[in-house]
Amino acid sequence: MPADLPLDRAARPLTEPAGSTGAGERTWRRKELTDYDWYYQLPRWEAYFAVIAGFGLVLAWTTTTNRTDQLVASGLLVGLIGWWIAFGRRMYTLHRQSLGHGLTYVLGALALLVPLLVVNQQCSWVLFSITPQIFMVLESDLISSFAVSVCCLLPALVAFLTGGVNSEFWSELTIGIGVAGISLLINSATERIARQSAERAKLIAELQASRAQVVDLSREAGVAAERERLAGEIHDTLAQGFTSILTLVQAAAGELARSPDRTRAHLDLAARTARENLSEARALVGALTPAALGSGSLADAIGRQAARLTEEAGVETEFDTDFDTDGEPGALPTAAEVVLLRTAQEALTNVRKHARARSVRITLGAEQGRVWLTVADDGMGFDPATPSEGFGLRGMRNRVEQVGGTLTVDSGPTGTTVRVEVGR
User: Fold this and answer.
1) How far apart are CA 258 and CA 256, in angstroms?
2) Average pLDDT, whole number, for the chain?
3) Measuring CA to CA, which of 23, 77, 223, 307 is 20 to 30 A from 186?
4) pLDDT band, very low/low/confident/very high, at 318 (cuts 50, 70, 90)
5) Treating both helix axes as pointing N-terminal to C-terminal, what angle do 167-234 and 127-137 enclose, rounded to 10 degrees?
6) For residue 382, is pLDDT > 80?
7) Contact criterion met (CB below 8 Å) for 340 and 422
8) Alpha carbon distance, N-terminus to C-terminus of the chain
9) Is the backbone of residue 327 left (phi > 0), alpha (psi -120 to 50) or beta?
10) Is the separation of the CB atoms in 24 and 139 below 8 Å?
């Protein structure tokens, strides 16, 4: 297939599987190759036919001095040209090949060719244009090969009828057999090339379809990943913040009659949590860095989460760190900082909601190119292997895996330790 064949033509889907062409079907003229034939093959073949016809006219006037023979030979050559244009070419371009139409064209060509050879045997050069035309108009390999062989042997038959078995006969017979063999070989090669072109067109069409499918799957995977990310963000920020606000409002309602000062403190803390939730929501909508990281380092953000746990739940919280990413060479990527912060938030939320712990120890450190965070409490613990309907532990694990980190959870009757490590 030519490299410059337009992609929309080269990749036209085929109506049958590649390689399924029957023995009697002309691959290079199948309906699927209409554009390829019309735009590329036919003009080149007709240029070739014109050269052969012109050479035949030259031979008709230079190989004999008999004016009558010259005029008759020229007329027969012009008749062959007109027969192709009026019938053979029209049948080929409109894809109306049938056995009846094809044989009609071949018989008409023979009716003009035989007297041409009788008048001037040197005009047998016209066979070089007749043989490809036969392959073009006959769809059966067997019949077209037989017709081509007959045409190529016509000069030998004419030599036999006019002079018997002589040297000219044997010469024409040898040349005819050779030309017939070459024609059949060329046709076989053309068939193979055309079949490969059809198969390549089918492969290109399949490749384009597969590429479109990959694009769709990638889009769906991206949507699913973004949905998972947003679910984690909402769970780790807004949902937890709303839970804190609800807890503080309930506590304020319980203290309303007994202690106005404690009520006011609870309401102030609820208002501050609501403002932080609003900042998180704006950052989430804008796909920005979490609000907690926008106003300080990772250590500062985790320290504020620890202080909030003490204020809201009265749990004694200790935060130790010798790691600060602010301005440090090789500091953590933002994605890794977000994972560490969200892990700390989720772990502290679980302490407040489920652990019934009296104290929590949070440690942030770095060693050998990795940053690690541990959150350890002295609460009642749980079984990490037990399936849970919640998003917390599963969300933490998914987040850590996305940045190539590791998450370990060790829990028992004496407490729970969550440890996460990420690369720098």
Assistant:
1) 6
2) 76
3) 77
4) very high
5) 40
6) yes
7) yes
8) 52
9) left
10) yes
